Amino acid sequence: MRVGLGYDIHRLVEGRKLFLGGVEIPYIKGLDGYSDADVLLHAVCDAILGAMGKEDIGIHFPNNDPEFKGISSIELLHRVSDLARRDGFRIVNVDSTLIMEEPKILPFKAKMRKTMASVLAIDESRVNIKATTQEGVGSIGRGEAIAAYAVASVEETK
User: Fold this and answer.
1) For residue 91, which of 116, 112, 114, 121 has the smallest C-alpha distance?
2) CA 6, CA 46: separation in Å to the nearest integer?
3) For residues 83 and 150, is the Cβ–Cβ distance under 8 A?
4) Helices (H) and strands (E) in the chain — how many of each?
5) What is the CATH number of the domain that holds 67?
6) What is the pLDDT of residue 158?
7) Which range of residues forms the domain containing residue 57?
8) What are the pLDDT digits (tens) for 39-91?
9) Which of 19, 66, 132, 155 is deepest in the core (most CB within 10 A)?
10) pLDDT tens figures, 15-40
11) In this structure, are strands 89-99 and 127-132 parallel, antiparallel, or unpaired?
12) What is the pLDDT of residues 103-149, one digit of tens each?
């Protein structure tokens, strides 16, 4: 059994759609980034890559490669999940925390879990998503950004 930790943060900006956990969330702003900037999926990708000892998403999907400009983070998660299987790992569990003031994600959590579980080929009960605020402190507290932490466990199958 191996464990990895992931973290990501992106600035909220006008004129972009907001994607979290592979789900479009209706909101007045979206996350700024080279891809769709889904901080939750980026943190999960980094956690899985970390558990496998495979560096991070910046190495695998550089933000100066035109192939990844505007790419869906669901596609990045697919690629990380495929890499895990190819390299002899089974994803066991993902636990994550979004840090944001708004919007509230409760109405979207079930769909986010289902989407992530499907891509990772694990049961929904093995994907956990939590959310907390920054209590008005810092850039996240001012509603300028959203961050996410994720922990993933993988099992070597070879």
Assistant:
1) 121
2) 5
3) no
4) 5, 7
5) 3.30.1330.50
6) 79
7) 2-156
8) 999 999 999 999 999 999 999 999 999 999 999 999 999 999 999 999 999 99
9) 19
10) 999 999 999 999 999 999 999 999 99
11) parallel
12) 999 999 999 999 999 999 999 999 999 999 999 999 999 999 999 99
Say how many domains are in the chain.
1
With residue 133 as reference, give the H or E element that holds it. none
Amino acid sitting at position 15 = G
Compute the distance between CA of residue 119 and CA of residue 114 in angstroms, rounded to an integer: 9
- Smallest CA-to-CA distance from 139 within 9, 38, 46, 49 is with 9
- Distance between CA 43 and CA 96 in Å, rounded? 8
Can you give the pLDDT at residue 104? Answer: 95
Return the bridge partners of 11, or none.
145
Supply the pTM of this predicted model: 0.97
Helix (H, G, I), strand (E, B) or coil at 114: helix
